UniProtKB/TrEMBL annotation:
This is Globin. One of its GO terms (molecular function) is metal ion binding. The keyword Metal-binding applies. Belongs to the truncated hemoglobin family. Group II subfamily. It comes from the Bacteria. Signal peptide: none annotated. It comes from Paenibacillus spiritus.
């Protein structure tokens, strides 16, 4: 991991980010608590996730160019996100990073970077 480069560059750019998004949503769609939160046609969600992560990881600002300011918490208020679901989401991301061969310390760095936002999206108590 080159600490002078962005996560986007350390990950390997757009192609590797696309691989990550695909591996991540394959896991999400199999997860019993997360899958019901997503539409049957997951492709538009995947595209927005790719755009957002590109920007969030220091690559091109694709999300803002297409949709304006991210305002991610507000965009997710309609989704019942609990602490447990945030942790499950992070677990799917950690697994997807492993699936595409991202090695340490980059894998843990990415999960840690996503942990704050994932927990910030929590808008419901655990059941």
């Amino acid at each position: 991991m080159n600490s002078a480069s962005s996560i986007y560059d350390n990950l390997g750019g757009a192609q590797r980010l696309q691989e990550l998004v695909e591996a991540f949503y394959a896991r999400v769609q199999r997860h019993p608590d997360l899958a019901p939160l997503f539409p049957a046609d997951i492709r538009p969600v995947m595209e927005k996730q790719f755009q957002f992560l590109s920007q969030f990881f220091g690559g091109p600002a694709l999300f803002s160019e297409a949709h304006g300011h991210p305002m991610m918490r507000a965009r997710h208020l309609h989704v019942p996100i609990t602490e447990a679901r945030a942790e499950d989401w992070l677990g799917c991301m950690a697994g997807a990073l492993g699936d595409i061969g991202v090695e340490e310390p980059l894998r843990s760095f990415i999960v840690a970077r996503l942990s704050g936002p994932a927990r910030h999206f929590v808008n419901r108590p655990d059941e």
